[in-house]
Amino acid sequence: MVKVVYRYGHRIGRDKRITTHVALTARAFGADGIVVDTPDKKLEESVGDVVNRFGGEFFIETGVKWRDYIKKWKGRIVHLTMYGENVMDCIDDIRKWDDILIIVGSEKVPGEFYEIAHRNVAIGNQPHSEVAALAVFLHLLTDGGWNDKKFEGVMEVVPTERGKKIRYNYEEILRREGCSKAVIEHCRKVAALAMEIARRIGEKGRKIDMDAVYAGAMLHDVGRARTHGIMHIVEGVKIARKYGLPSKILNIIKHHGGAGIDEEEAKKLGLPPGDYTPVTIEEMIVAHADNLTGYRYRKFRTAYAMFRMKAGKKAALKMKELHEKLSEMAGEDIDNIVEKLKSKRLVK
Ligand code: SAM
């Protein structure tokens, strides 16, 4: 059964929040899309943004006159109104229908709605709200089945008793943003190495946010979907921000270039003014795991030589310092960690 909601009487400005809530409720409770009478690009964008991040196939169309839409609609129509017949008396019949258009209003609706609707349905005969009416109607229509819908978005809320937990599908973000297979493979490799370095350092008693290391490593090069130049750092931060990722992750992306780019170097490279030096342990780990990873893992010696040629002596020495610092924290040379990872995972 295709379920589409028609939102009548949307007033830009005044109904911004409530129409957004009608749309989000329609999506969350299992409708396939929403059509809104008044053109509203901002509304389309904010609903589109939720769909983009949280998944599902939900569509939104605005600026569609109700007469035009209904003329084309092949299925049945339900009009939700406090004046209608009680939902409990008709929901069993409605469940047997094929496609269904659910009309909700804002203020007074045209009298014709009562005529064109196959059923005028009341969610109790008290006045309340289109959001509540729609939620209860969709709940009853799907017999609670809306709750089993899988959205498969890049973001997923993990139910927790207290606090907030969101799980991200980082590979899906890389794919959606248009990163090449090679970039995705590189990010996977950097993440595997960064996690291994973090684990070793963690074993020595240092507190490390492993989730941040993984997220930052997976996304450090997401900006390469836009450019392979140095600006991929800035683009990457922008993309990650769009997904609402915390500043901890944004900073890993921002500070991952080499062993860090100071203000002076940033100026020379044409980056927006600022210091791009890794500060936290998570930032240092990802930056260096990246230094030791191309299409394959490389030894520090090789990375150092490459870096010297590409970025100069000062930058290469900074990388050496970072390698030594992390090796000391891990209690062994990072090159050994790479070797062990290669033999354990059979990666090249
Ligand atoms: N007097 C209006 C009416 O026709 O129900 C109330 C307007 S209400 C602010 C906006 C929308 O909420 C209505 O167009 C209707 O779709 C929905 N609504 C409000 N109360 C409802 C109820 N008890 N049952 C079904 N829908 C309701």
Description of the structure:
The chain is an alpha/beta fold. The chain folds into 2 domains: 3-153, 3-Layer(aba) Sandwich (Alpha/beta knot), CATH 3.40.1280; 167-344, Orthogonal Bundle (Hypothetical protein af1432), CATH 1.10.3210. It has 16 helices and 8 strands. The protein has helices spanning 16-28, 41-54, 66-72, 87-94, 112-116, 130-141, 170-177, 181-203, 210-219, 232-242, 247-254, 263-269, 281-291, 300-311, 313-330, 334-345, and strands at 3-7, 33-36, 59-62, 76-86, 100-104, 119-122, 155-157, 166-168. The strands form 2 sheets. Strands 3-2-1-5-4-6 form a 6-stranded parallel beta sheet. A two-stranded antiparallel sheet has the order 7-8. α1 runs parallel beside α6, α8 packs across α13 and α10 (232-242) runs antiparallel to α11 (247-254). The mean pLDDT is 95. Residues 80-82, 104-106, 109, 122-124, 126-130, 133 line the site of S-adenosylmethionine. The site of S-adenosylmethionine has 16 residues, from β4 and α6.
